[in-house]
Amino acid sequence: MRRKRLRPYLWPLLIAWPVLAPGQIGTPGVVLSGTQLAPGYDMGVNSSGGSTDWLSIDPSNSLRMAYPPNQEWGAVFITVGRPVAPPRPSLDFSDYHFLIVELKGPAGGQLQAGIKAAADPDTGTEIKQTVDLTGDWQTQVFPLGGFAGEELGLLYVVCEFVFSGSSSLTTYVRSVRYVKSLSPGGAAVSLRAQGGSQLGLYINGG
What is d(CA 132, CA 14) in angstroms, rounded to the nearest whole number? Predict the structure, then answer.
């Protein structure tokens, strides 16, 4: 899927996010749990038309991303610190091997997920992986090796959700975390990276 150049993601999200004290989640690699960001992270939202009001807290203990119609693109992104112009802060995720996201959206819908290093330009050219939505809550596993060229030791955007097209799409996310390894067995997860290549692996169900 070809996408036009993006303008910079510099819009802070104007929502009173719950802030956790250090160690309150207590699990290394956890970025988002329910509606709560781990300490040290923030969120931003933008679209080709400059719309920044389509991310909210949902009663289902998740974040609601209601991508508006008549846009060329839209993005919701979790950053190290507040969204800022370069030079940007970063964290070292080089010890981790997988990004795991729990999300929900209408069957047949699609979005893309990605990450960005602090030095990456705001052009939308970073590698992203496509998620085919099923209508139910689904656990997506992204091998970090699938984000070719990203410097994992200097991540600034630790997770982004990118929408495209003129039709609206409402999705929900309730968990974002990094892990070093996966347990054998469980449910199969198949991912399609930008460009069409297939990635398949197994994780525990639930």
Answer: 29
Measure the CA–CA gap between 56 and 35, rounded to whole angstroms.
Answer: 9
Q: Say which amino acid occupies 120.
A: D
Of the candidates 48, 121, 43, 112, the one whose C-alpha atom is nearest the C-alpha of residue 88 is 121
Contact 142, 98 (CB under 8 A): yes
Q: Are 163 and 169 in contact (CB under 8 A)?
A: yes
Two structure tokens written together for 147: 């984000």
Task: Report d(CA 125, CA 40) in Å as an integer.
Answer: 26
Chain segment 102-123, per-residue pLDDT in tens = 999 999 999 999 999 999 999 9
DSSP annotation string for 156-201: EEEEEEEEESSS-EEEEEEEEEEES---SSSEEEEEEETTS-EEEE
Task: Give the distance, in angstroms, between the CA of residue 195 and the centroid of all CA atoms in the same chain.
Answer: 18
**Cα–Cα dist 118/153, whole Å:** 10
Return the amino acid letter for 131.
Answer: V
Instruction: Summarize pLDDT for 37-50 with one digit per residue, the tens.
Output: 999 999 999 999 99
Match 């949902």 to its residue by tokens. Answer: 58
- Partnered with residue 8 across adjacent β-strands are none
Which tokens sit at 135? 């209508």
Task: Report residue 131 CA to chain centroid gap.
Answer: 11
Which residue is it, tokens 């047949």? 108
